[in-house]
Structure formats: structure tokens, C-alpha cells
Design a protein that fits this description.
By secondary structure, the protein is α+β, with helices and mostly antiparallel strands. It folds into two domains: about 220 residues, Cytochrome Bc1 Complex, Chain A, domain 1 (2-Layer Sandwich), CATH 3.30.830; about 180 residues, Metalloenzyme, LuxS/M16 peptidase-like (Cytochrome Bc1 Complex, Chain A, domain 1, 2-Layer Sandwich). The chain has a six-stranded mixed sheet with strand order 1-2-8-3-7-6, with helices on both faces. Strands 9-13-10-12-11 form a five-stranded mixed sheet, sandwiched between helices. A two-stranded antiparallel sheet has the order 4-5. The radius of gyration is 23 Å and the shape is globular. It starts with a helix and ends in a 9-residue tail after the last strand.
């Protein structure tokens, strides 16, 4: 209850505080670089540690190893089993989180100032000496297999796996994050230990801390917590292009409603024209009910309850894509409308009114992301991993507002490629057949 009250109080004061707070970049004596935001009004800190690589480090025959490993980090360490570790965490009013994504493994911690030494010692034990107990291993493996079985009956998940396979052949991105039934069943405890050693290495580590701690206090704590990790990890994947050509792939699946996803090559986050592309996508399909796709597909024609587009700047690939679901007898029309709107936007661009509204929304919504020290720590790590400058939170809205309509419409002409769109449709869509 105590930590919950502190979190709630922090959430109410953070946005205003963060706008006036400088981010410090410090390097510990052990060589660990960290971004720190000091806020001493509440005795509470949030720590975020992320490691590049994630599930992309899994060999094809070991797909799912990193995901399973992350799930086991909270299942006991040292001489503590899962129950004892959980009880120790609760006694310290601490909260730990472990997550494996396609491009990273992330560790988060929220601890009280008075307990931070003991709490971080417990976290260190989980990171350095996870037990990977055979009983816990089999139990968590069964949980992962249950997730995979569920995904195999989810049209949207089937569509996502299919388009990744088409878009990234012979690349880790084509592998399911959780692995497959065959690969997960074959995993051993030794595989999990290897995944742990490979994923948590200092040469691809990014750290941020927000809360009640000074730079002088933080350095020794981080060196003790993270200094014993392996210095280097395995080679990271190479960049790839979205390989699927324009067309339609139909996956037959017995369901009354078809799920469709689409994609083509996108734009890198570091591209000078990314902000223009970001505004463009918001207007096209990223702004919910006010977006063009939503207006044309949902509001005007009633073909779906939801449709959206997105920009995805992964570590090793960039795509523009989207998703929609509609009844089997209407999905063909929905896709035709999406293709038509893609082409209209490429040919004619956006209007001044649309651009003004997009800027107003995106600049107004941005401060709301900083509504808690945990979220701020997460955002700061993300900035580091993306190579963004330390002053990005203070300059981001100005950079958005500086984008002109001419720049947005110029990007629309080269970025949006209606003929290059690859659609994957899962269901029994009437009037649609695979084009290759």
C-alpha cells in the first residue's frame, strides 16, 4: 500500500516537474553510462536497464529461448525459490519487471529510497544468479506453449507471423518472439543459461534512473548491480529490407471475420524527414477516429470497427504498415479503400487543416507520456537506444512544429508506395485470392 501511494503521488506531480528538470548523463567509475533525473520530493526511484538484441539473438532452432529466459528471471535466484523471492520483494516494497522483445531485453525496478540497497541487492541476485530451477523451467515452458497454442488460433497473430515471414526471410524477424511449439518443446535449461549470458551483456546496455538519488550515490549502486555482467555479447543481427513485393496473400482460416495486415518499406528514425513522415502517418491512419483511413473505411462505409496505420522503426528494419478486420464479404472492399487512400495521400498529400490539427494533438499529448517515474525512465532508455540527443524532450515539439506542409507532402510522394503494399488476409475473404 505504501509504495502504491507513493507511485500515485508521483504520477500527479511528474509532468510539471519533468518539464523543468535537466537530464544528467553520468559515467560510473566502472564505465556504466546512465541518464539520471533527480527528484527528491518523494523517497522513491525507478531504474530501467535495456539490452539490445532481445529475441533477435535466438538461433532459428532455439526460437523462444530469450522470451522464456526473461520469464524465468522472477522464478527464483540463489537459494531463493520463486515463492521466497516474491516474498522478499514484497517485504522490501519493491517491484521488478522483466521483458523480452524482438529487439531488446528490459529490466525495470521501482524501489523506496530507504530500501534501495537491499532491493537492488535482490535484483542483482536475480540478474547474476538466476536459479533456472528445472521445476520452474517446465512450468513456465508450459505457460509459453499455452500462449503459442492460443496464437495459432488468432487470425491477427497468424497474419502478423505470415507477413514477417514474407518480409524478412532468413532473418531473425521472421521468427515468432515466443518461438514455435517445436522449438520451445526442445529447449533445455542449458539453452536458457546460454540465452541469459548472451542477452545481458554490457556492450549493448542502456540505463536510466529517475527519482530520489544523487549522481554520487547512484554510481556505486550501479557498478555493484551491473558490473558483473558479461562485457560483450554475441554478434547482433544485420540490417534488412522488407522483402515482400506488392500483392495479396490469403491464409485460409475458418472465421466469420477476416483479419488483414499490410506493409512496405518504411523510413529510419534517424532520417531527417522522419518527423514529416510521423505527421503524415498520424493524418493517414495513426490518429484513431480522426484519421483518413478511419473516416473512409469505418465512418463513411461501415466496413470495420477499427483500422490504423503505423511507422515501425525497428533496430534492423523499417516499415510502414497497418491493420484492419472486416467480415469475409466486406474485407475486399475495405482493402480497396485502403489502397485508394494510400494512393490519394501519395499523390495529393495532406491539407493545411489536417497538418495544423495533427501538430496540435501530437505536441499536446507528448507531455502526458511523462506521468510517472517508471515511464520517464523507460522513455529515457528508449531515447538512448534510438540515438536521440539528451535534450530531445525539450526540443521534440519545436521540431514537430517546424515541419512544413511542403515537407510532409514531399515525403508522401516517395514514402507511400501503393503498388508495393503486401496484404496478408487471414479468413475466408470473398473475392480475394493470393496473387503469388
Amino acid at each position: 500500500m505504501r509504495i502504491l501511494l507513493i507511485i500515485v503521488a508521483w504520477m500527479f506531480c511528474t509532468t510539471a516537474v519533468f518539464a523543468e528538470t535537466d537530464i544528467q548523463e553520468i559515467t560510473t567509475k566502472g564505465g556504466i553510462k546512465v541518464w539520471l533525473v533527480e527528484e527528491h520530493s518523494i523517497p522513491f526511484i525507478a531504474l530501467e536497464v535495456s539490452f539490445k538484441g532481445g529475441a533477435s539473438l535466438d538461433a532459428p532452432e532455439k526460437a523462444g529461448a530469450t522470451y522464456l529466459m526473461a520469464g524465468l528471471l522472477e522464478e527464483g535466484s540463489g537459494d531463493l525459490d520463486a515463492t521466497a523471492f516474491s516474498m522478499s520483494t514484497e517485504e522490501l516494497a519493491a517491484s521488478f519487471g522483466y521483458n523480452a522483445g524482438r529487439d531488446s531485453v528490459s529490466i525495470s525496478a521501482q524501489v523506496l529510497t530507504e530500501n534501495r540497497t537491499q532491493a537492488l541487492a535482490l535484483l542483482k541476485q536475480a540478474l547474476m544468479d538466476p536459479s533456472f530451477n528445472p521445476v520452474a523451467f517446465e512450468r513456465v515452458k508450459k505457460q509459453v506453449l499455452s500462449i503459442i497454442h492460443s496464437n495459432e488460433t488468432d487470425p491477427r497473430d497468424i497474419a502478423g507471423r505470415t507477413i514477417r515471414g514474407l518480409g524478412y526471410p532468413n532473418h531473425p524477424y521472421s521468427q515468432p518472439l515466443e518461438g514455435t511449439i517445436d522449438t520451445v518443446q526442445a529447449l533445455t535449461v542449458d539453452d536458457i543459461k546460454a540465452a541469459h549470458k548472451g542477452a545481458l551483456a554490457k556492450d549493448r546496455m542502456y540505463v536510466s534512473v529517475v527519482g530520489d538519488i544523487t549522481a554520487a550515490e547512484l554510481g556505486p549502486l550501479l557498478d555493484d548491480l551491473l558490473g558483473g555482467l558479461p562485457a560483450t555479447g554475441p554478434k547482433l543481427p544485420v540490417k534488412t529490407e522488407f522483402a515482400a513485393k506488392g500483392g495479396i496473400t490469403v491464409v485460409d482460416f475458418d472465421t466469420p471475420q477476416s483479419a488483414a495486415v499490410w506493409a512496405h518499406t518504411g523510413i529510419d528514425l534517424k532520417d531527417p524527414e522522419f518527423f514529416a513522415a510521423y505527421l503524415l502517418n498520424h493524418i493517414l491512419g495513426g490518429s484513431g477516429f480522426t484519421a483518413r483511413l478511419s473516416h473512409e473505411v469505418r465512418e463513411k462505409r461501415g466496413l470495420t470497427y477499427g483500422v490504423y496505420s503505423y511507422l515501425a522503426s525497428y533496430d534492423y528494419a523499417n516499415v510502414v504498415g497497418g491493420s484492419v478486420a472486416s467480415s469475409n464479404d466486406r474485407i475486399k472492399t475495405a482493402i480497396e479503400v485502403i489502397q485508394d487512400e494510400w494512393r490519394k495521400m501519395a499523390d495529393k498529400g495532406v491539407t493545411k487543416e489536417e497538418l495544423v490539427a495533427a501538430k496540435k494533438y501530437l505536441t499536446g499529448a507528448y507531455p502526458l507520456r511523462f506521468d510517472g517515474n517508471g515511464r520517464i525512465a523507460n522513455l529515457l532508455v528508449g531515447m538512448q537506444m534510438q540515438g536521440l540527443p539528451i535534450d530531445y524532450p525539450k526540443t521534440r515539439n519545436d521540431r514537430l512544429n517546424e515541419v512544413t506542409i511542403e515537407e510532409v507532402n514531399a515525403v508522401a510522394k516517395w514514402l507511400l508506395k501503393p503498388d508495393a503494399l503486401r496484404f496478408v488476409v487471414v479468413g475466408k475473404p470473398e473475392g480475394l485470392i493470393s496473387t503469388d
